[in-house]
């Protein structure tokens, strides 16, 4: 048996043994590198908003939010959770038929920004912007995420992130939704310090 054939057989055996496709286990947010990737990706995107933000808080990992995200992801409902499943927190979902990195999933949410103009809102009726506005919601600074493998679904990979405090937590105010952060000089109104365009608590 050639080395390549042996590798392919081993890969097939491993997939049958674990019941999960290759690459899925590496996405687990039990792994510090995945938690770091999620936090770093969010902060990188929050730093690059246009117009720049005066009050954008720096994201940090939150174990409680991650645990709630994991509980919901494992249900494989492929729908948003009730408020009771994420007290005081917002939620972004991403579903895929193939394994994607956390950075790819988060970028997809952020890319909805092409449908959004700061201070105005959606560029056209029905435009999907909710994932973007949650990613750049200035007051959300705690995040926890998880991913589940849902083999019975068409979209088998189910990514869930919880953001605290939530985008909608203080009421679904239309004007507030148009301005997920205060525009102006970076860190212009930070409560404490500034860390490379982001406010720290």
From TrEMBL:
<dbReference type="Pfam" id="PF00188">
    <property type="entry name" value="CAP"/>
</dbReference>
<protein>
    <recommendedName>
        <fullName>SCP domain-containing protein</fullName>
    </recommendedName>
</protein>
<dbReference type="InterPro" id="IPR001283">
    <property type="entry name" value="CRISP-related"/>
</dbReference>
<feature type="signal peptide">
    <location>
        <begin position="1"/>
        <end position="19"/>
    </location>
</feature>
<dbReference type="GO" id="GO:0005576">
    <property type="term" value="C:extracellular region"/>
</dbReference>
<feature type="domain" description="SCP">
    <location>
        <begin position="33"/>
        <end position="171"/>
    </location>
</feature>
<dbReference type="InterPro" id="IPR018244">
    <property type="entry name" value="Allrgn_V5/Tpx1_CS"/>
</dbReference>
<dbReference type="InterPro" id="IPR014044">
    <property type="entry name" value="CAP_dom"/>
</dbReference>
<comment type="similarity">
    <text>Belongs to the CRISP family.</text>
</comment>
<dbReference type="InterPro" id="IPR035940">
    <property type="entry name" value="CAP_sf"/>
</dbReference>
<keyword id="KW-0732">Signal</keyword>
């Amino acid at each position: 048996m050639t080395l390549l054939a042996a590798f392919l057989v081993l890969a097939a055996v491993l997939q049958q043994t674990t019941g999960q496709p290759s690459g899925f286990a590496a996405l687990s947010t039990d792994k510090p590198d995945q938690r770091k990737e999620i936090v770093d990706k969010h902060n990188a995107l929050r730093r690059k908003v246009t117009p720049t933000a005066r009050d954008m808080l720096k994201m940090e990992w939150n174990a409680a939010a991650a645990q709630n995200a994991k509980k919901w992801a494992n249900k494989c409902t492929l729908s948003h959770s009730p408020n009771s499943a994420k007290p005081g927190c917002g939620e972004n979902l991403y579903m895929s038929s193939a394994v994607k990195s956390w950075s790819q999933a988060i970028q997809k949410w952020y890319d909805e920004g092409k449908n959004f103009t700061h201070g105005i809102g959606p560029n056209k009726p029905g435009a999907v912007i909710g994932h973007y506005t949650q990613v750049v919601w200035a007051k959300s600074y705690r995040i926890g995420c998880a991913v589940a493998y849902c083999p019975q679904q068409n979209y088998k990979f189910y990514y869930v992130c919880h953001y605290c405090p939530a985008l909608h937590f203080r009421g679904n105010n239309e004007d507030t939704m148009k301005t997920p952060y205060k525009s102006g000089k970076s860190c212009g109104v930070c409560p404490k310090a500034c860390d490379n365009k982001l406010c720290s608590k």
